[in-house]
Amino acid sequence: MTILDALDDPALFASHFADHSWRPWRSFLATCHGLPTDATDLALYRECTGRQEPPTSPTREAWCIVGRRGGKSRIAALVGVYQAAFVDHPPKLAPGEVAVVAIIASDRQQAQVVFRYVRALLTETPMLRRLVVNETAEAIELRGRVRIEVWERRQVRVTEPMARLLTLLATTRPTTGKGGHRR
User: Fold this and answer.
1) Is the domain of 102 the same as that of 154?
2) Which of 81, 132, 133, 180 is deepest in the core (most CB within 10 A)?
3) Helix ranges restricted to H, the chain
4) What is the tally of structural domains in the chain?
């Protein structure tokens, strides 16, 4: 199941991302996962990147410039939950090892927001709710030896090698005014 399949599935994430304003994020996810794109996605990809052809395999890294309330936290939560619930981690793990899906937030407040989104995606989706084994203030552990954690950026040195799956969350904060899209 691809991330777009999960996003479209009424039993999974469709109700959480139903509004048409999520279309650019769908294009982004398709591109990052090396999935086929339609003409609309391709046009958006070309406009945003200046490149002609999107990748045909998953990207290792993606950088986004997204304003406040642009959906970054919800998409980071979605990607984290998808990676934890739908990627088969145990074959890659040593006996007793637990895979950690880490979502990195800019600060403590943002980490709490993302953690609440992660919890909601898991607990408000019956199929995924059954995967939850344990929840603490810092992590949600799922069946299959995987744990989702949301870290503050200051807790991580991204430059050192990490044997963890990282979903980077870059948060921009405007210096003046409000604005942005409601999510």
Assistant:
1) yes
2) 81
3) 3-8, 23-32, 39-49, 72-86, 108-123, 126-129
4) 2
Least confident of 34-43, 57-66, 104-113, 170-179: 170-179
- Whole-model pTM: value is 0.81
Please state, in angstroms and rounded to a whole number, the distance separating the CA atoms of residues 31 and 62. Answer: 10
Nearest Cα neighbor of 146 from 176, 109, 82, 101 is 101
One domain, residues 3 and 34: yes
Are residues 128 and 122 in contact, defined by beta-carbon separation less than 8 angstroms? yes
Q: What is the Cα–Cα distance from 115 to 110, expressed in whole angstroms?
A: 9
Q: How far apart are CA 158 and CA 166, in angstroms?
A: 9
Do 37 and 99 sit in the same domain of this protein? no
pLDDT tens for residues 43-95?
Answer: 888 888 888 888 888 888 777 788 888 888 999 999 999 999 998 888 888 99
Helix axis angle, 72-86 relative to 23-32, nearest 10°?
A: 40
Domain containing 29: what range? 1-62
Strand partners, 104: 151, 168
